Amino acid sequence: MPSLTPSAVIKQIESEQPDPIYLIQGEDEIEKSALAAKFADLVDEGLHAFNVERIHVGDLTTGDKLADGVASLIATVRTLPMMAPRRVVIVHQAETLLMPRRESDAATRALDELEALFKQPEPQTALVFVAANVDKRGRMYKLFQKHATIVECGALVDQADAERWARNRIAAAGAALEPAAARLLAQRAGTDVRRLRADVDRLLLYALGQKSITADDVREVTGPADLQDDWAMTNAIEGGQAGEALRQLALMLDSGAPAEKVLGQLGWVVRSKFPVIAANQLNGAVGALFRTDLDLKRSAGDARVLLERLVVELCTGKRSARRW
In the CATH hierarchy, which top-level class contains the domain 159-225? Predict the structure, then answer.
C-alpha cells in the first residue's frame, strides 16, 4: 500500500474514498490529532454517535488485556454502520497495541487475529491507527506496509502541507489563520518545519488575544525567504547595523543553525575583519567572543540571548570605531 502525505489523505476524505486501514505516525501530536479527527467527516455529524468510535489502547500492558482489547476492536470494526454507508474507528496510542511490552501466548494470538483483520479488512469501515513512531523492523509495521496506508506527520512536502500545518497549530492555540496569512507563512518558511514552527510560535506571541491572525501580522514577525543568507549577519556587523544583524541572527537560529556555527562566523569576523575596520576595538571584541564561548559551554544562559548580546556588542564596537 502507498505512503501518503496528510494533504493527500484529506483529499481522500473529502472525496469520500478512504482506504480501508491507515497508520498515522510521527512526532507531531497536533497534526496527528487533527488528521485523525478529520476522518469523522466521512459520517454525517448527526450519526457520529452510532458510527464514529474512538478507542484508547494505552493500558493494554499484559497479554490478556491485549487479547481482550484486540477482540473488542475487531468486533467494533466488523459492526455494520447504522443509517450510514460507512463507520470510522480511530485507535489512539496504537504503538502499545502494535508493539506489546511483554511477549506471551495471549499476545501472540492477539497479533495473529489483528493480522487476519489486516488481510481481510471490513469494506464499510475506515480503521485508523494513531501512533508514535513504530519500530519499522517489527512484524506489525511490515503488515502496515503491505496492507495499510502509512501517513507521516511532521514532514512537509510542499506549500500546501506547510499551510495546513500552520493552520492546525494556530487552531490548537485557539486562534484562526486567514488564508492569505497561511499562504504568506508557507511562502516564507517553505518546507522547513523548524523555521515554520519558530515563525508560528512568534506569531502566536505577537498576536496574543487576537481571534484571527492576518497577513499583516505575518509580515511583522517573519522575514522573507531570500534573507536566509549565511553571511548576511556578518555583512551587517561589518556595516555596524545592529538591527539587521539581529534579524539575520534570528533567521539563522530559526532555520536550525547550531549556536556553535554562528559563534564560528562571529569569530571569523573578529579575526579577519576587525583588525582592518575596527582595530581600536579588537581587544574588546576578542574578549566578548571568548566570554560568549565560555558561557555557551557552561550553559550560563540561553544560547540565543548570549549570541544576541555578542552581536550587539560587535556592532556597537564597529560604530564606535567608525566615529573615532
Answer: mainly alpha
